[in-house]
Amino acid sequence: MTAAAANHGPGPYRERLDSPRDIRAALLPEEVGEFDEAYQRALRLAAETLSLEALHSMLANWRRIARMTLVNPAGHRRMLEQAQRTMETGQPPEGAVEWNQLRAELGI
Prior knowledge:
Blueprint: H1 3-8, H2 20-26, H3 29-49, H4 53-71, H5 73-89, H6 99-106
Helix pairs in contact: 2-4, 3-4, 4-5
């Protein structure tokens, strides 16, 4: 089996998420409204510009989010909650490391 075949075969959480409906169904309930708004904006832009580029880009972004959600819904929800806390308080998560410190630890 080739590496390409091993990475693209069927398996758990390998849903294709081909349609906006599939992507939306895979999201957490708290993300559906944001998806709907982004989808409507992309559709309006596509109609105005006669280009599907923004729509394809938007769907690719949300497809990644849907896949992350399918793999670990609880982990994805914790990440969203932590991001919200950080945005509200301006404080990084407990145990967070500054970018420069992380780079030094990684030797880059």
